[in-house]
Amino acid sequence: MTDVLKVKDLTMKFDSKVIFQNLNFELKKGSMTALLGPNGTGKTTLINILMKLLIPTSGTFEFAKGVKLGYVPQFRNIEADYPLSIRAFVSLNTPLIKTKKIKERVTSELKETHLLSIQNTRMGEASGGQKQRAYLAQALLDKPNMIILDEATASLDPSAKEELMQLIKHLNEEHDITVLFVTHDVPLARKYMNNYLYLNHGTITQGKMSEFEGDYE
Ligand SMILES: Nc1ncnc2c1ncn2[C@@H]1O[C@H](COP(=O)(O)OP(=O)(O)OP(=O)(O)O)[C@@H](O)[C@H]1O
């Protein structure tokens, strides 16, 4: 399998505080990788670097040619009175003038994320799982071939978690989307992911999810 991402000697410091040092890892095309690690070890910092929102102190990273990255944040700050429908929310980043082609893309992603039948429900009234799938649909509109999910299951109930993970599995298996999933949920990662990156004490360990024995203290 080819690499979609190569990280070499990546170091991040905030002033003199070292967050991590000399990280080296690769992600394979079509893999499903959990990025695990205790609170505050730098997972979000690493993702922000990969998304080019932060510049690392030193080291390099390179995505393979043709990699198109999608980012799915954890849903939050959607108040009960939030006025947009699920469909309008998913369409937020599309051009103002909605051509037939754009409308069809939105419909197709709503269908893919099991939201089509409730597309007119207000986001404020939607369940946590529905809101989270709306964020996923938004990211899928750009047709990414790799997605990064940041704690996307963190505040969902067990059945909404399973539905989201099944959907991610489907995207991986049927649409060949490479997955990097930031999570604290080790059982869920064991069930759905095949590899892990464990970020702790400023270094990273990589291996098979079935063999993961991280220390979360
Ligand atoms: N802009 C910044 N300036 C200074 N320190 C920062 C900055 N951003 C993050 N940090 C520090 O870097 C460390 C890593 O933070 P980060 O949010 O990346 O951790 P995390 O592993 O994602 O944590 P969590 O699991 O709680 O989300 C923390 O100690 C944090 O306080």
Notable characteristics:
Rossmann fold; three-stranded antiparallel beta sheet; 2 domains; globular; binds adenosine-5'-triphosphate; 217 residues; alpha/beta; 6 helices
Tally the beta strands.
9
Strand order of the largest sheet: 5-6-7-3-8-9
CATH architecture of the largest domain: 3-Layer(aba) Sandwich
Mean pLDDT: 93
Overall spatial form: globular
Q: Which class best fits the helix and strand makeup?
A: alpha/beta
CATH topology of the largest domain: Rossmann fold
The helicity comes to 25-40%
* Main sheet specs: 6 strands, mixed
End-to-end separation in angstroms reads 34 Å
Instruction: Encode the helix/strand succession as letters.
Output: EEEHEEHHHEHEHEE
Query: Which distinct ligands sit in these coordinates?
Result: adenosine-5'-triphosphate
Can you tell me the CATH superfamily of the largest domain?
Answer: P-loop containing nucleotide triphosphate hydrolases
What is the count of DSSP helices, taking H or I runs of 4+ residues?
6
Q: What is the total number of structural domains?
A: 2
Give unreliable regions as ranges: none
User: Which CATH C-level class of the largest domain is it?
Assistant: Alpha Beta
User: Which band does the percent of strand residues land in?
Assistant: 25-35%
As a whole number of angstroms, the C-alpha radius of gyration is 18 Å
Question: Could you walk me through the main structural features you see in this protein, from its secondary elements to its overall organization?
Answer:
The chain is of the alpha/beta class. The protein has 2 domains: 1-68 and 144-217, 3-Layer(aba) Sandwich (Rossmann fold), CATH 3.40.50; 78-143, no CATH class. 29% of the residues lie in helices and 28% in strands. It has 6 helices and 9 strands; from the N terminus they run βββαββαααβαβαββ. It has helices at residues 43-50, 86-90, 100-112, 128-140, 158-175, 186-192, and strands spanning 3-14, 17-28, 32-36, 58-63, 69-72, 146-150, 178-182, 195-200, 203-208. The strands form 2 sheets. A 6-stranded mixed beta sheet has the order 5-6-7-3-8-9, sandwiched between helices. Helix 5 links the parallel strand 6 and strand 7. Helix 4 (128-140) packs parallel to helix 5. It is globular. The relative contact order is 0.20. The model has no long low-confidence stretch (mean pLDDT 93). It binds adenosine-5'-triphosphate. Residues 14, 19, 37, 39-45 line the site of adenosine-5'-triphosphate.
